[in-house]
Amino acid sequence: MQILRFIKDWTLPVAIATGIIIYLVFALIPVLDGFATAANPVFQQLLPVFMFLVLFVTFCKVDFHKLRPVAWHWWIGLFQVLTVGAIMALIICFNLTGENLILAEAVLTCIICPCASAAAVVTQKLGGNLEEMTTYTFISNFITALLIPICFPIIDKAADIHFFEAFALILYKVFTVLVVPMILAYIVKHHAKNICQRITSIKDLSYYLWGCSLLIVSGTTMKNILHADTSITFLLIIAVSSLALCLFQFGCGRAIGSQFNQTVNAGQALGQKNTAFAIWIASTYLSPLSSVGPGCYILWQNIINSWEIWEAQKTAKLGK
Q1: SS in 3 state form for 208-261?
Q2: pTM to 2 decimals?
Q3: Which of 12, 27, 39, 121 could bridge across to 306 with cysteines, CB 3.0–4.6 Å?
Q4: Could you give the C-alpha distances from 142 to 43, 82, 129, 203, 278, in angstroms and in order?
Q5: Rounded to whole angstroms, how far apart are CA atoms 40 and 26?
Q6: Which residues, in sequence order, are bridge partners of residue 115?
Q7: Please, what is the Cα angle at 274 between 271 and 277, to 5 degrees?
Q8: pLDDT tens, 140-177?
Q9: Residue 108 and residue 285: Cα distance in Å, rounded?
C-alpha cells in the first residue's frame, strides 16, 4: 500500500525515472537490443494515442460555453512574442555560429513552441481554471504557427520552410492533436451523457494517462541525449540553460498571472511547453543537436509540476 501511495503522490517523477531506467536497461544490455529496436516504433505510435486520450478525458470535463479569451491570455502571448524577438535579436546582432548558435536555437525552441496540450491536466490538479487554460492552448498554438515561418528562415538560410506551408502544417497538427479530441468529447458530453459521467467519475484518469505518455517521452529524451554528437560539457551547458529558462518562464508567467488573480493558469501557460513539438521543429528545421534543449526542458518542467502538485496537496490536507 505504501508503494502504491508513493506512486500516486509522485506520479510524474516516477514516470520520468521509469522511462529513463527502462531505456537504459535495453540500451546497455546487448541481448535486449533486438527487442528495443522492434519496440521503438510501437512506443512511437502509442505516444499520440495516450495524448489523444489525455485530452479527450480532460475535455469531457470542460464547459464549452466558457471557452473564450480573457485578459491574461494576451499578456502571456505578448510576453512569448517579445521573448522570441529578444533571442532572434541576439542571434542576428552577434551573428552567432557554431555551438553558440546551437545553444541559442535550443533556447529559442523552448520559447517559441506552444503551451503543452496537457497543461490543462496539471492546471486542474492545482485548482486553476480548466476552460481558460484550454482556450489559451489554442491561442498559443496559433502564435507559434505565425512565429516559426517568420523566424526560422532568418536563422538558417538553408531552411526549406515557406510561410503558408509551415502555417498550414502546424495548424494541421493542432487540429489532429487538439480539435479532434475536443469534438469527440463535445459529442460524448452532449449526446452520450452516461458514458461521459463514467469517464469523469474516474478520479485523475487524465493525469495517470499523461503519466504513461511521460514515461515514453522520458525514454525518448534519454535516447536523444545519449546519442547526441557532442561533448558532455556542451550537453551540460544546454541542460543548465534549459533549467534556467524553465524557471524563468514559470516565474514570469506566475508574475503576470498574479496581476489578474490567475497565478496558476498563467504560470502553467508560459512555463509548461509542448516539448515534443519543440523537439520535432528543432530536428526538422534547425540543428538536430538543438533538440537536446527541449529534451531536457521536459524533465525540468515536470519536476516543477510535481513539486507544485505536492505543494497543492499538502495545502489541501492542512486546510481540512
Answers
A1: HHHHHHHHHHHHHHHHHHHCCCCCHHHHHHHHHHHHHHHHHHHHHHHHHHHCCC
A2: 0.86
A3: 12
A4: 28, 16, 21, 31, 15
A5: 11
A6: 273
A7: 145
A8: 988 988 888 888 888 865 556 666 777 777 777 777 77
A9: 12
> Could you tell me how far CA 238 lies from the centroid of its own chain?
18
Which of 70, 209, 213 shows the shortest CA–CA distance to 128?
Answer: 70
Q: Is the dihedral of CA 40, 43, 220, 183 positive or negative?
A: positive
* Domain segments of the chain as ranges: 20-319
DSSP summary character for residue 178: I
Mean pLDDT of 217-224: 78
Given pLDDT bands bounded at 50, 70 and 90, which one contains residue 125? confident
Grid coordinates of 211 = 503519466
Indicate the SS3 state at residue 115: strand
Which residue, 69, 117, 109, is CA-closest to 87? 109
DSSP letter string over 254-298?
HHHHHTTT-HHHHHHHHHSB-HHHHHHHHHHHS-GGGGHHHHHHH
How far apart CA 19 and CA 307 sit, in angstroms, is 19
CA pair distance 289, 272, nearest whole angstrom: 22
Quick: pLDDT tens for 15-62: 888 888 888 887 777 777 677 667 777 777 777 788 788 888 888 888
Cell matching residue 279: 523537439
List helix spans (H) across the chain. 2-9, 11-28, 33-59, 71-93, 98-112, 119-125, 130-155, 163-174, 180-191, 193-201, 205-226, 232-258, 263-271, 275-285, 292-319
Contact 70, 132 (CB under 8 A): yes
**17 residue type, one letter:** A
Which of 112, 123, 183, 121 shows the shortest CA–CA distance to 148? Answer: 112
Query: Could you tell me the three cell numbers for 159?
Result: 531552411
